[in-house]
Amino acid sequence: MSKWVVLGILVAALAACTAQPGPAPTVRLESPEDGVHVVLGERVLVQSVAQGEQGVVKTELWADGRLYEVEHSGEPEGQPLLDAIHIWEASSIGTHTLYLRAHSSDGQVSEPISVTVYVVEPEPTPTSEPTSVPTAIVDSSCDPSARFVEDVTVPDDSLFNSGVRFTKTWRLRNDGECAWEPGTKWVFIGGDQLDAQSPADAELAEPGRIVDLSMDMVAPGAPGTYKSYWRLQRPNGDFFGDQAYVRIIVP
Which of 89, 115, 176, 209 could link 145 by a cystine bridge, Cβ 3.0 to 4.6 Å? Predict the structure, then answer.
């Protein structure tokens, strides 16, 4: 047998052994329901669960054919199961199509899953005599930012008996170029609130500073897995920075 034949056999064997890409990730929409009606200006929580053997690195929310928001897993290799909450603001009246896509660490993209949202005018309310109210001036020259660093207390899937009180602490870093504004809040945005008070005042942070944010919580009465999502909110109502969560199990 000639060396060229042997070489050809080796090449064919190597090609056959080359790892094939795994299946593409999938994404499941938890909320909102398809066909939901919301009021103009309302913030809609778009909650999803993405799954992928190669690890999900991010989910994308598209609105009316345009990329609206991206949520990253925070892990370079991704996560096999990624819960994410996107926040879409109903800024114009009419019918809107939102859809989600998940991306895996090997570059594969899930099939999009869509939901239709109808935005309507708010009902008129009785008016009273106008009064002069000072307008808050928000500095728009710099957008604040925050990066999740670590869970200080209560790691994922911690066990708590029903009714047990605990304190969850997240560590975040101001990774932006401007300080967080006075009036910045730490706000519950979805999942299970776990009897926590929201909104809560957030400690102000200059660029580069590390801040610990703590919330007192209570384990629910029924057995199950519970997840509570939180995010920073500016005085003007805009959310910013990474969202953080706590996940507990009540046996």
Answer: 176
